[in-house]
Design brief:
By secondary structure, the protein is an alpha/beta fold. The protein has helices at residues 20-31, 49-59, 81-106, 140-158, and strands at 11-15, 35-39, 63-66, 111-117, 162-168.
Length: 170
């Protein structure tokens, strides 16, 4: 009918969709009737710049939730610090920059959310923390998450990409 508006489904990509936060977000966005593209290490290589560009071009999402992370715990097989830094920066910084660069070049209206971590702050001293609290990352995961926030700031300020960061707590 003339005059009727067709409401298109909002499209979103969840990067890191198999984690707890990714699963909860997917459930919420499904409830809100989003069309979702779910990316996990089982089905997509976020470190491949060409694959990232292609998925952004194919899906043309309005929203991208970057929840992926490389996190090394003490219980994991012992790896060298060099290898932990490499893997952490590959996921938490370089892969993130692939998405931000693809947004700038292919889909500049897309909005990206980056999940950072409370680990970017030094020791907890009982005070309430916020984005203005002094950053003092003391492990590889925290260092790479803080670097990811800086990359988002760079793309936001220099490239005018919508990139927001959330500092998540357990």
């Amino acid at each position: 009918m003339q005059g009727d508006l067709i409401k298109l489904k909002q499209k979103a990509i969840i990067v890191g969709s198999n984690g707890q936060d990714g699963q909860l977000l997917a459930k919420h966005l499904t409830y809100k009737n989003y069309e979702l593209t779910l990316l996990s290490r089982l089905n997509f290589d976020i470190t491949n710049v060409f694959d990232v560009s292609n998925i952004i071009e194919d899906v043309m999402p309005g929203e991208i939730y970057f929840l992926a992370a490389y996190h090394h715990s003490a219980e994991d097989i012992q790896e060298s610090d060099n290898l932990i830094f490499k893997k952490s920066f590959e996921i938490n910084v370089t892969a993130l920059s692939h998405f931000l660069d693809s947004i700038e070049k292919i889909n500049p209206k897309a909005r990206l959310f980056y999940a950072s971590s409370s680990h970017i702050f030094a020791d907890y001293n009982g005070e309430i923390q916020n984005e203005n609290t002094t950053k003092n990352p003391r492990n590889v995961y925290a260092i790479s998450k803080h670097a990811g926030m800086m990359v988002c700031g760079y793309y936001r300020e220099r490239k005018k990409v919508f990139a927001s960061c959330g500092i998540l707590y357990n």
